[in-house]
Amino acid sequence: MIACEDVIEVDLDTADPRLVIDASIDWEKNTTGNEQKIKLSTTTAYYDSTFPTVSGANIIISNSKNREFNFVEKPGTGEYICTDFEPVIGETYVLRITLNGEVYTATETLTAAPDIEDTIEQNNEGGMAGDEIEITFYHQDDGSQENYYLYGITTNRVAFPQYFVEDDENRQGNLTPVYYSHEDLESGDNVNIKLYSISRRYYDYFKKLLLASGNDDSPFPTTPNEVRGNIINQINSEHFAYGYFRLLQVDTRDYTIQ
Q: b/e map of 26-60 (b: 16 or more CB within 10 Å)?
């Protein structure tokens, strides 16, 4: 007996396209951080698998000394590149995007990331059920202030990087362990770890993104809704853009499963 399943596509209303700004300025430790990229695209219909790119924008980031860093598009790609950016911890930067007569701006301060400790532990009986390979990495929390962290994990077992956020409410000033496990991890697999220190505002924004996408590890899915970032349309607030302007230092480590 052969069972067949038909794919049913529901007729959905499609809203007018809205600008999406991916302005993630990430400075990896031990690099100059001079090359940075901003991507522009638009929202699209629910069943579409590609996002239309946006060309023709003028994009500038300036610092407190009025030094301007220009982002120039690779023709036709919607990717705007700067090759002379100067990242400085504690410096405040202003993003300005001019497109089709409208001006989008955002302000953010570049934050420093703690170091990932050299010791990474592996437990072959980890995970919730004790049947997964689990690794634990550590970083030191700064006890003099409230801290918020973004972790990114990339492995060959998952198609896209996995992200999660955490505050230091229960780890204030302590060495902080971070756990990661996956049921398909095997000996020889590489795990790339990224650690960012983020602002409270970006922490709240990213938590909402995780909830809206259903990737918050909750057994109870939430109803998708709009998540607004820190980018403001100075000409017409009704034509707001999706996305966030962030400036973060990032520490990275690679670990090979034993």
A: bbeeeeebeebbbbbbbbeeeeeeeeeebeebebe
223: exposed, middle or buried (C-beta count within 10 Å: 0-12, 13-18, 19+)? exposed
pTM of the model: 0.85
Residue type, 18: R
The count of domains in the chain is: 2
Q: Are residues 131 and 203 in the same domain?
A: yes
* Token code pair at residue 165: 């956020």
Q: Which secondary structure element, helix H or strand E, spans residue 251, and what is its range?
A: strand 242-256
pLDDT tens digit sequence for 5-18:
555 444 444 557 88
Residue 22, strand partner residues: 39, 244
